[in-house]
């Protein structure tokens, strides 16, 4: 594990999780019916998804590699930057219409969502969020590849403290486990 989790905090701590230095894996089981979304298209707002991170005040780079047991529509896991319930970015893998997609949600009062299907079977995904000034750059890589594929460039409030770390949620399912094999916030 690349990260010391002392001082980290949860937004919506899940019932089951562990950070075992012996095997170097952060295991998080998303609770059933959890999500991060605000208003757009669906008309509802959920702030029940699990975010585990450390507070940062300025520029930051979050990188995580993970595998998950996706099972139900919209099961999701990845990285997150969160100011509050109305200002956040999450990016990672989401199970949509029977296949895995890499995607990002940017929320500034209202959520927007962009996804693209992953080609073929994928073992692990690496997601990178880079906060520079008023911007978050989202990149990803698959199966051990560096996060070199640009997914999104988005506005993010500059100079405002944010929680930087990992996330997961199970909006329609009964929950699923994600294994974060590497987490770095620097």
From TrEMBL:
This is DUF1349 domain-containing protein. It comes from Sphaerisporangium rhizosphaerae. It holds the Pfam family DUF1349.
